Amino acid sequence: MNTAAVVQTALPSAEISLFGMFWQAHIVVKLVMMGLIAASVWCWAIIIDKSLLFGRYRRSMNQFEEVFWSGRSLDELYRSLEDRPVHGMQALFQAAMREWRRTFDGQRRAVGSLQQRIDRALDLAIQREGETLQARLGVLATVGSSAPFIGLFGTVWGIMTSFRSIAASNNTSLAVVAPGIAEALFATAIGLFAAIPAVIAYNKLQSEATRTQARLEGFADEFSSILSRQIDERVAA
């Protein structure tokens, strides 16, 4: 059989399209592709969710700082936030003010260790907010680092299958080899498609989380100083 005849008989049976390459791939390669596609969808869901979350944090902290530094009474501000779900700086403010009110609204005023309790409450609030900011970012890092290798596994498996098919058919023409190689390389392409956005988004979101947490820590230090001065004034009085 000459080359032209092989090309004419091989091309109609091998559909070189994305769906065709997926459908004709080996079951192992199909599982790899479906896993990578699912990981990519999961990553994009996390990216969108975290982007919206950080946007809410920025707007919320900007608004709270405007109110906080406007000279409004701390007790009045605490009452306005008491029954509302809060996050970010509001959560830190509530945690410190809750400890403050427990001390001065009770009959026994343990003022001596109040500053330590406030600092501990602020540290715990920062830790909780940091966990919220960092949640699921590890998934992006995992997908970004492992997806290319998973795709490469699918490619190697597909190439092995293609070589076995070539050996069985005793035909090494390009028309016979190309479809199987294309199917195998498609797995690597999907792996890169999942990994590249995950790595870029992880670096960006991780940087955003670090900046937000640093901003929270800065507010905690300033608020702790304010409460420390008020504690000294009340003790002196």
From TrEMBL:
Keyword terms of this UniProt record: Cell cycle, Cell division, Cell inner membrane, Cell membrane, Membrane, Transmembrane, Transmembrane helix
Residues in MotA/TolQ/ExbB proton channel domain copies: 90-217
Membrane-topology annotation of the record: Multi-pass membrane protein
Annotated compartments: Cell inner membrane; Cell membrane
Coiled-coil portions: none
Keyword Cell division: yes
The keyword Transmembrane helix is annotated on this UniProt entry: yes
Pfam families (UniProt xref): MotA_ExbB
Transmembrane segments: 27-48, 137-160, 180-202
Predominant location category: membrane
Entries under HAMAP family matching the protein: TolQ
PANTHER family attached to this UniProt entry: PROTEIN TOLQ (PTHR30625), TOL-PAL SYSTEM PROTEIN TOLQ (PTHR30625:SF3)
Family: Belongs to the ExbB/TolQ family.
Subunit structure: The Tol-Pal system is composed of five core proteins: the inner membrane proteins TolA, TolQ and TolR, the periplasmic protein TolB and the outer membrane protein Pal. They form a network linking the inner and outer membranes and the peptidoglycan layer.
Protein task: Part of the Tol-Pal system, which plays a role in outer membrane invagination during cell division and is important for maintaining outer membrane integrity.
This protein's name: Tol-Pal system protein TolQ
Biological source species: Pseudochelatococcus lubricantis
